[in-house]
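Good day; I would like, with your permission, to put a structural problem before you. The record follows directly beneath this note:
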Amino acid sequence: MRLCKPTSLLNKDRLWLTLFFLDNFDSFTYNLVDQFRTLGHQVQIYRNDCDIALVEKMALQPNSILALSPGPGNPQEAGILLPLIQRLKGKVPIIGICLGHQALIEAFGGDVVHSGEVLHGKVSNIQHDEQAMFAGLSNPMPVARYHSLMGENLPDEFIVNAEYNGIIMAIRHKTLPICGFQFHPESILTVQGGKLLENSVNWLLNRD
């Protein structure tokens, strides 16, 4: 593991919290970063080959959220991704996107399997429960999917709050501030994606 300095991107007009963003070497990383900056948050980016102790120490600072990016491959191949979740679950709010979502499922004891198709920019109309992160959003909701893997055998600690044809599209933990999305909220193809991320941050910060 290499000790690395974070890339810090700051919206100086409004600063609500710091997102510690684990980059799984994905081309969508900076699209997500830009979305979070638009919401007024500071973002510090660490790649998944960084020293885990450094990322853990930084993410445990007050007013922080750990964001897990999309990426290639599966969670087992994503450097410190899985062990970082194990260290920080229950200690800091966590949001996972695509690979990050799959990693949350696997870290809590679920399975990540092949979905049977490879999707790259496929728009699907997901059904959601209109609760928590999805409050006030259109239902069904068009979202952009870029994945060939999916989560299944969801651990009992989680609620499925969105799905498409039986595929888990979004989850939230029953008691902890943790949520995940199989699709890409930052994509222009995802209707109301910015609002979804805003809702998610608010839900994570106000989770009892």
Helices lie at 29-38, 52-59, 81-88, 99-107, 193-205. The chain has five helices and twelve strands. The longest strand covers residues 122-128. Residues 8-15 have pLDDT under 50 and may be disordered.
